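Structure in, sequence out. Go:
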């Protein structure tokens, strides 16, 4: 018997440490190559760590919640399978297996694409083939009177906590075969503790077990932000929503604590680690190394709103989420081509000397600041300048879905050249954003709402937004920043300029 120790790998470029968030195995479990061992939180993302070994787990060397350095041993796996099977018990392999070549850092962007098996031709650690298309089982005949769309489901026990709901409530999709009139069946597979389940489109997309959990918790699915691969509400979405709701409830009911306790005992201490630690360090370095200058401009975005409405009705954009952010992203790309110095980097100590240089990028890796349950992330769309309007819309949708699900990979947050932060989604008019490190410009997109606007001497209601831009004054002078913001505003006022 050989005992193999698995050291924490570098799942990103330059990773130095990570936190063990949750173990997915325990001592005595049998694991195969590519089975998920644990979830780790790096400074940039939440990553599932697959096993490079096959065998039996002998010991978990690091407890949950502990931050360790790369290279630290986290688990030991013996190559002896529990139970010591005899050669007669082991089935002959269908084909010779290729040598295992672990490759970390390449994890599926969404758990809907994970089949749970090793890829053909040999396992590739951290990746796997997409799930094959799954055919629906034949419908079971049922009396028409037995189908009731709005009939409530009575449960013998109604748990009140999320842990109680999940415990013992992993259901199969056997009850989904009888569809009520007006429902549209869409086959969707996703591995769960209870096996593969099938989802139905019924107003809000969600699988039956997820709907059941939502009912038990009293959650309206329409209020939950969906991050599923096909726009469905997932268990993780419910966890995030419930956690936020519980936090708000706790703060509302007992935020101030008991008055009789000393003030020193009424202080909540939150460890700074993971994404929050990395964000804080980056923002401090940016704020105190790059001299910021900010400017603002009010924009009549009425024609952008009309254009977005036409895109939503277009057959070419059917099934694609379209918002004014898409037009702003295209406007920023267009304006950067006219004012190249905003798409640049300031570099100190060139060649080990005191010399500095400005590196103007002839490509656009467009960053989109995304607020996630784990903190602020800024993934970017590589070579955004080469994408059509439809391709850019798809890239924005995928970026947002992946970020909210916590599946953003470290490589997707590196190499950004210019960033957009959409604070208008929260109803904020404008702000003074801090430049993302390594860049020299960031654009804040405020909310769009109807306001009185003077047009041709008359005061009429128009859709107005405010753009805020922050710039590194070492690279971008006042004149350049003003021309760049004016060009962005011009596209929002007249999207047809993009056709020139």
């Amino acid at each position: 018997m050989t005992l193999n120790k698995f050291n924490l790998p570098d799942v990103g470029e330059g990773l130095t440490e990570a936190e063990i968030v949750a173990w997915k195995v325990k001592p005595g479990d049998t694991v195969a190559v590519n089975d998920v061992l644990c979830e780790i939180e790096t400074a940039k993302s939440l990553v599932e760590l697959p096993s490079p070994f096959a065998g039996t787990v002998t010991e978990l060397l690091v407890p949950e919640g502990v931050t360790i350095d790369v290279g630290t041993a986290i688990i030991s796996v013996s190559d002896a399978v529990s139970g010591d099977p005899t050669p007669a018990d082991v089935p002959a392999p269908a084909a010779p297996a290729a040598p295992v070549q672990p490759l970390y850092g390449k994890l599926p962007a969404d758990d809907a694409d994970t089949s749970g098996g090793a890829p053909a031709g040999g396992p590739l650690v951290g990746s796997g083939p997409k799930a094959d298309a799954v055919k629906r089982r034949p419908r079971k005949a049922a009396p028409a009177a037995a189908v009731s769309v709005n009939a409530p489901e009575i449960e013998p026990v109604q748990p009140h906590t999320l842990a109680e709901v999940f415990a013992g409530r992993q259901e199969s999709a056997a009850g989904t075969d009888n569809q009520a009139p007006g429902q549209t069946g869409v086959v969707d597979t996703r591995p769960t503790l209870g096996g593969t389940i099938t989802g139905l489109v019924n107003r809000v997309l969600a699988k039956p077990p997820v709907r059941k959990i939502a009912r038990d918790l009293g959650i309206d699915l329409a209020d939950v932000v969906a991050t599923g691969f096909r726009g469905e509400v997932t268990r993780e979405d419910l966890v995030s929503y419930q956690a936020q709701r519980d936090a708000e409830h706790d703060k509302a009911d007992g935020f101030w604590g008991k008055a009789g306790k000393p003030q020193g005992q009424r202080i909540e201490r939150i460890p700074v680690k993971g994404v929050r630690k990395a964000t804080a360090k980056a923002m401090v370095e940016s704020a105190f190394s790059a001299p910021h200058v900010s400017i603002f401009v009010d924009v009549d975005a009425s024609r952008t709103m009309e254009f977005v409405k036409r895109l939503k009705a277009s057959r070419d954009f059917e099934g694609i989420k379209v918002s004014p952010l898409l037009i702003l992203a295209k406007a920023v790309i267009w304006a950067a081509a006219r004012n190249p110095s905003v798409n640049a980097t300031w570099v100190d100590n060139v060649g080990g000397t005191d010399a500095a240089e400005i590196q103007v990028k002839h490509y656009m890796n467009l960053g989109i600041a995304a607020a996630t349950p784990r903190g602020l992330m800024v993934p970017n769309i590589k070579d955004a300048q080469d994408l059509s309007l439809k391709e850019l819309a798809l890239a924005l949708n995928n970026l947002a879905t992946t970020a909210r699900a916590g599946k953003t990979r470290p490589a997707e947050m590196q190499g950004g050249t210019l960033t957009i932060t959409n604070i208008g989604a929260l109803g904020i008019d404008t702000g003074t954003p801090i430049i993302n490190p390594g860049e020299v410009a960031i654009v804040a997109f405020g909310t769009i709402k109807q306001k009185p606007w003077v047009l041709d001497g008359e005061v009429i209601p128009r859709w107005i937004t405010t753009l805020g831009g922050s710039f590194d004054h070492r690279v971008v002078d006042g004149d350049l920043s003003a021309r760049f913001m004016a060009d962005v505003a011009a596209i929002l006022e007249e999207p047809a300029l993009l056709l020139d």
